[in-house]
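hey so u asked for the seq, here:
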Amino acid sequence: MSQTSDWPLPSGSIRYLVPQFLRDKLRKHPLSCGLYPISFGNYKEALGHQMQRQDHDDFLLIYCIKGSADLRLKDQDYEVSAGDILLLPPGTDHEYKTKDDDPWSIYWLHLKGEDCHLAAEHAGFIKDNYLQKFGTHPKLIQDFDHLIDCRTGGYNVNTSVYAANLIRQILSYIALLQPATASARSSQLNLDTVHALMQENLHTRLDLDTIAKAVNLSKFHFVNKYKELTGMTPIQHFLHLKIERACYLLDITQQSISEISYSLGYEDSYYFSRLFKKVMGIAPTQYRRKQRH
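ran it, C-alpha coordinates below
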Protein backbone atom coordinates (compact mmCIF):
# COMPACT_ATOMS: atom_id res chain seq x y z
CA MET A 1 0.00 0.00 0.00
CA SER A 2 1.31 3.45 -0.92
CA GLN A 3 2.20 5.75 1.92
CA THR A 4 -0.71 8.02 2.86
CA SER A 5 0.16 11.50 4.04
CA ASP A 6 0.42 11.86 7.82
CA TRP A 7 0.20 15.63 7.49
CA PRO A 8 -1.81 17.14 10.41
CA LEU A 9 -5.41 17.65 9.38
CA PRO A 10 -6.81 21.20 9.48
CA SER A 11 -10.33 21.85 10.73
CA GLY A 12 -13.02 20.36 8.51
CA SER A 13 -10.66 17.97 6.69
CA ILE A 14 -10.99 14.20 6.56
CA ARG A 15 -8.62 11.27 6.08
CA TYR A 16 -10.12 7.77 5.98
CA LEU A 17 -8.09 4.57 5.60
CA VAL A 18 -10.08 1.45 4.68
CA PRO A 19 -9.08 -1.27 7.19
CA GLN A 20 -7.24 -4.31 5.84
CA PHE A 21 -10.05 -6.79 6.50
CA LEU A 22 -12.45 -4.62 4.46
CA ARG A 23 -9.94 -4.25 1.62
CA ASP A 24 -9.66 -8.04 1.53
CA LYS A 25 -13.45 -8.36 1.28
CA LEU A 26 -13.67 -5.69 -1.44
CA ARG A 27 -10.91 -7.42 -3.42
CA LYS A 28 -12.99 -10.63 -3.43
CA HIS A 29 -16.49 -9.19 -3.78
CA PRO A 30 -17.84 -9.49 -7.37
CA LEU A 31 -19.22 -5.93 -7.33
CA SER A 32 -16.00 -4.28 -6.16
CA CYS A 33 -13.07 -6.57 -7.01
CA GLY A 34 -12.24 -4.62 -10.19
CA LEU A 35 -11.93 -1.22 -8.51
CA TYR A 36 -12.03 -0.42 -4.80
CA PRO A 37 -10.78 2.28 -2.41
CA ILE A 38 -7.70 2.00 -0.20
CA SER A 39 -8.11 5.43 1.37
CA PHE A 40 -9.83 8.73 0.62
CA GLY A 41 -10.55 12.14 2.06
CA ASN A 42 -10.43 15.89 1.61
CA TYR A 43 -7.99 18.57 2.74
CA LYS A 44 -9.22 22.14 3.09
CA GLU A 45 -6.76 25.02 2.63
CA ALA A 46 -3.96 22.55 3.27
CA LEU A 47 -1.17 24.91 4.26
CA GLY A 48 2.13 23.00 4.48
CA HIS A 49 0.82 19.88 2.74
CA GLN A 50 3.50 18.05 0.77
CA MET A 51 4.35 14.50 -0.28
CA GLN A 52 7.07 12.62 -2.13
CA ARG A 53 6.52 9.03 -3.27
CA GLN A 54 8.91 6.75 -5.09
CA ASP A 55 7.34 3.45 -4.08
CA HIS A 56 3.83 3.97 -5.42
CA ASP A 57 1.77 0.79 -5.80
CA ASP A 58 -1.81 2.03 -6.29
CA PHE A 59 -3.73 4.61 -8.31
CA LEU A 60 -3.91 8.13 -6.89
CA LEU A 61 -6.56 10.68 -7.85
CA ILE A 62 -6.48 14.31 -6.66
CA TYR A 63 -9.17 16.85 -7.53
CA CYS A 64 -8.17 20.42 -6.70
CA ILE A 65 -11.15 22.71 -6.09
CA LYS A 66 -9.33 25.74 -4.69
CA GLY A 67 -5.81 27.13 -4.39
CA SER A 68 -2.70 25.67 -6.06
CA ALA A 69 0.34 23.45 -5.61
CA ASP A 70 3.65 22.65 -7.28
CA LEU A 71 3.92 19.18 -8.82
CA ARG A 72 6.91 17.24 -10.12
CA LEU A 73 6.42 14.18 -12.35
CA LYS A 74 9.24 12.34 -14.08
CA ASP A 75 11.62 15.30 -13.81
CA GLN A 76 8.98 17.69 -15.20
CA ASP A 77 7.50 20.56 -13.17
CA TYR A 78 3.81 21.51 -13.25
CA GLU A 79 1.40 23.75 -11.37
CA VAL A 80 -1.87 22.31 -10.10
CA SER A 81 -4.69 24.85 -9.74
CA ALA A 82 -8.42 24.90 -9.04
CA GLY A 83 -10.34 22.64 -11.41
CA ASP A 84 -7.37 20.35 -12.17
CA ILE A 85 -7.53 16.57 -11.80
CA LEU A 86 -4.41 14.47 -11.30
CA LEU A 87 -4.66 10.72 -11.86
CA LEU A 88 -1.46 8.72 -11.41
CA PRO A 89 -1.03 5.00 -12.11
CA PRO A 90 1.15 2.76 -9.92
CA GLY A 91 4.89 3.18 -10.28
CA THR A 92 4.74 6.90 -11.08
CA ASP A 93 7.27 8.78 -8.95
CA HIS A 94 5.81 12.08 -7.89
CA GLU A 95 6.24 14.98 -5.53
CA TYR A 96 3.88 17.83 -4.69
CA LYS A 97 3.77 20.77 -2.32
CA THR A 98 0.98 23.26 -1.79
CA LYS A 99 1.66 26.95 -2.37
CA ASP A 100 2.34 28.83 0.86
CA ASP A 101 0.44 31.89 -0.33
CA ASP A 102 -2.46 29.96 -1.93
CA PRO A 103 -2.81 26.52 -0.27
CA TRP A 104 -4.89 24.03 -2.19
CA SER A 105 -8.16 22.41 -1.14
CA ILE A 106 -8.46 18.92 -2.58
CA TYR A 107 -10.41 15.69 -2.68
CA TRP A 108 -8.16 12.65 -2.94
CA LEU A 109 -8.36 8.89 -3.12
CA HIS A 110 -6.12 5.83 -3.48
CA LEU A 111 -7.59 2.84 -5.31
CA LYS A 112 -6.72 -0.61 -6.55
CA GLY A 113 -8.21 -3.31 -8.77
CA GLU A 114 -7.73 -4.78 -12.22
CA ASP A 115 -10.22 -2.32 -13.77
CA CYS A 116 -8.34 0.80 -12.63
CA HIS A 117 -6.23 1.05 -15.80
CA LEU A 118 -9.33 0.74 -17.99
CA ALA A 119 -11.25 3.30 -15.92
CA ALA A 120 -8.32 5.75 -16.09
CA GLU A 121 -8.05 5.37 -19.86
CA HIS A 122 -11.81 5.80 -20.26
CA ALA A 123 -11.56 9.06 -18.29
CA GLY A 124 -8.86 10.28 -20.71
CA PHE A 125 -5.76 9.84 -18.56
CA ILE A 126 -3.52 8.04 -21.07
CA LYS A 127 0.03 8.31 -22.44
CA ASP A 128 1.49 10.28 -19.54
CA ASN A 129 -1.41 12.75 -19.70
CA TYR A 130 -1.82 12.61 -15.93
CA LEU A 131 -2.82 16.21 -15.16
CA GLN A 132 -5.86 17.73 -16.86
CA LYS A 133 -8.05 20.81 -16.46
CA PHE A 134 -11.77 20.22 -16.00
CA GLY A 135 -12.97 23.13 -13.88
CA THR A 136 -14.90 22.94 -10.63
CA HIS A 137 -18.02 20.87 -11.29
CA PRO A 138 -20.78 20.68 -8.67
CA LYS A 139 -21.68 17.08 -9.48
CA LEU A 140 -18.09 15.95 -9.01
CA ILE A 141 -17.91 17.77 -5.68
CA GLN A 142 -21.23 16.23 -4.65
CA ASP A 143 -20.08 12.72 -5.61
CA PHE A 144 -16.86 13.13 -3.62
CA ASP A 145 -18.89 14.34 -0.64
CA HIS A 146 -21.11 11.27 -0.92
CA LEU A 147 -18.00 9.08 -1.01
CA ILE A 148 -16.65 10.71 2.14
CA ASP A 149 -20.03 10.23 3.84
CA CYS A 150 -19.56 6.47 3.39
CA ARG A 151 -17.02 6.46 6.20
CA THR A 152 -19.85 7.14 8.67
CA GLY A 153 -21.49 3.81 7.83
CA GLY A 154 -19.07 1.87 10.03
CA TYR A 155 -16.87 -0.98 8.81
CA ASN A 156 -19.71 -2.34 6.73
CA VAL A 157 -19.20 -4.39 3.55
CA ASN A 158 -22.33 -3.04 1.82
CA THR A 159 -21.31 0.56 2.50
CA SER A 160 -17.82 -0.17 1.20
CA VAL A 161 -19.16 -1.79 -1.99
CA TYR A 162 -21.31 1.31 -2.48
CA ALA A 163 -18.19 3.48 -2.03
CA ALA A 164 -16.34 1.43 -4.65
CA ASN A 165 -19.12 1.97 -7.16
CA LEU A 166 -19.28 5.68 -6.36
CA ILE A 167 -15.65 5.84 -7.48
CA ARG A 168 -16.62 4.17 -10.76
CA GLN A 169 -19.33 6.81 -11.13
CA ILE A 170 -16.82 9.61 -10.49
CA LEU A 171 -14.41 8.31 -13.12
CA SER A 172 -17.22 7.74 -15.62
CA TYR A 173 -18.46 11.28 -15.09
CA ILE A 174 -14.97 12.66 -15.67
CA ALA A 175 -15.06 10.90 -19.06
CA LEU A 176 -18.35 12.66 -19.85
CA LEU A 177 -16.77 16.02 -19.09
CA GLN A 178 -14.01 15.64 -21.68
CA PRO A 179 -15.92 17.04 -24.72
CA ALA A 180 -17.52 19.86 -22.71
CA THR A 181 -14.40 21.23 -21.07
CA ALA A 182 -13.30 23.58 -23.86
CA SER A 183 -16.72 25.18 -24.37
CA ALA A 184 -17.22 25.62 -20.63
CA ARG A 185 -14.07 27.72 -20.38
CA SER A 186 -15.38 30.22 -22.95
CA SER A 187 -18.74 30.79 -21.24
CA GLN A 188 -19.46 34.41 -20.31
CA LEU A 189 -20.74 33.28 -16.91
CA ASN A 190 -18.91 30.29 -15.49
CA LEU A 191 -21.77 28.30 -13.97
CA ASP A 192 -19.34 25.64 -12.78
CA THR A 193 -17.63 28.20 -10.56
CA VAL A 194 -20.97 29.41 -9.23
CA HIS A 195 -22.31 25.92 -8.53
CA ALA A 196 -19.06 24.72 -6.99
CA LEU A 197 -19.15 27.70 -4.61
CA MET A 198 -22.71 26.78 -3.70
CA GLN A 199 -21.76 23.16 -3.05
CA GLU A 200 -18.86 24.23 -0.85
CA ASN A 201 -21.20 26.36 1.25
CA LEU A 202 -24.18 24.06 1.72
CA HIS A 203 -23.45 24.08 5.45
CA THR A 204 -23.89 27.84 5.77
CA ARG A 205 -25.51 30.93 4.26
CA LEU A 206 -24.25 32.37 0.97
CA ASP A 207 -25.14 35.88 -0.15
CA LEU A 208 -25.42 37.18 -3.71
CA ASP A 209 -22.56 39.66 -3.27
CA THR A 210 -20.12 36.84 -2.50
CA ILE A 211 -21.19 34.76 -5.52
CA ALA A 212 -21.16 37.73 -7.90
CA LYS A 213 -17.67 38.70 -6.74
CA ALA A 214 -16.43 35.17 -7.46
CA VAL A 215 -17.37 35.58 -11.15
CA ASN A 216 -16.37 39.27 -11.41
CA LEU A 217 -19.86 40.61 -12.03
CA SER A 218 -22.07 43.14 -10.27
CA LYS A 219 -24.90 41.59 -8.27
CA PHE A 220 -27.47 42.97 -10.71
CA HIS A 221 -25.79 41.58 -13.85
CA PHE A 222 -24.99 38.29 -12.15
CA VAL A 223 -28.60 37.63 -11.12
CA ASN A 224 -29.95 38.56 -14.57
CA LYS A 225 -27.37 36.48 -16.44
CA TYR A 226 -27.83 33.49 -14.16
CA LYS A 227 -31.60 33.55 -14.58
CA GLU A 228 -31.22 33.92 -18.34
CA LEU A 229 -29.05 30.78 -18.48
CA THR A 230 -30.86 28.59 -15.93
CA GLY A 231 -34.42 29.84 -15.71
CA MET A 232 -34.20 30.42 -11.95
CA THR A 233 -32.49 32.78 -9.54
CA PRO A 234 -29.21 31.84 -7.86
CA ILE A 235 -30.90 31.75 -4.45
CA GLN A 236 -33.56 29.36 -5.75
CA HIS A 237 -30.89 27.02 -7.07
CA PHE A 238 -28.90 27.24 -3.84
CA LEU A 239 -32.04 26.31 -1.91
CA HIS A 240 -32.66 23.35 -4.23
CA LEU A 241 -29.10 22.12 -3.63
CA LYS A 242 -29.64 22.33 0.14
CA ILE A 243 -32.92 20.42 -0.11
CA GLU A 244 -31.28 17.82 -2.34
CA ARG A 245 -28.59 17.36 0.31
CA ALA A 246 -31.26 17.15 3.01
CA CYS A 247 -33.04 14.38 1.08
CA TYR A 248 -29.77 12.46 0.82
CA LEU A 249 -29.17 12.75 4.58
CA LEU A 250 -32.77 11.75 5.32
CA ASP A 251 -32.32 8.70 3.11
CA ILE A 252 -29.04 7.31 4.41
CA THR A 253 -28.60 8.59 7.99
CA GLN A 254 -30.45 8.47 11.29
CA GLN A 255 -29.82 12.17 11.95
CA SER A 256 -32.75 14.10 13.37
CA ILE A 257 -34.46 16.86 11.42
CA SER A 258 -32.85 19.40 13.75
CA GLU A 259 -29.37 17.95 13.12
CA ILE A 260 -29.86 17.99 9.35
CA SER A 261 -31.24 21.51 9.52
CA TYR A 262 -28.25 22.73 11.50
CA SER A 263 -25.78 20.98 9.15
CA LEU A 264 -27.28 22.98 6.27
CA GLY A 265 -26.98 26.35 8.00
CA TYR A 266 -30.50 26.61 9.44
CA GLU A 267 -30.63 27.07 13.20
CA ASP A 268 -34.44 27.10 13.16
CA SER A 269 -35.57 23.59 12.19
CA TYR A 270 -39.18 24.74 11.79
CA TYR A 271 -38.11 27.30 9.20
CA PHE A 272 -36.06 24.61 7.45
CA SER A 273 -39.07 22.26 7.43
CA ARG A 274 -41.21 24.96 5.78
CA LEU A 275 -38.58 25.47 3.08
CA PHE A 276 -38.32 21.71 2.57
CA LYS A 277 -42.09 21.37 2.16
CA LYS A 278 -42.18 24.33 -0.25
CA VAL A 279 -39.72 22.55 -2.56
CA MET A 280 -40.68 18.88 -2.08
CA GLY A 281 -44.39 19.20 -1.38
CA ILE A 282 -44.12 17.23 1.87
CA ALA A 283 -42.46 17.79 5.25
CA PRO A 284 -39.06 16.18 6.04
CA THR A 285 -40.67 13.72 8.48
CA GLN A 286 -43.16 12.60 5.82
CA TYR A 287 -40.37 12.28 3.25
CA ARG A 288 -38.38 9.99 5.57
CA ARG A 289 -41.41 7.80 6.28
CA LYS A 290 -42.26 7.47 2.57
CA GLN A 291 -38.67 6.50 1.69
CA ARG A 292 -38.66 3.72 4.28
CA HIS A 293 -41.94 2.06 3.29
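The chain has two domains: 14-181, 187-291. The longest strand covers residues 36-43.
lmk if thats what u needed
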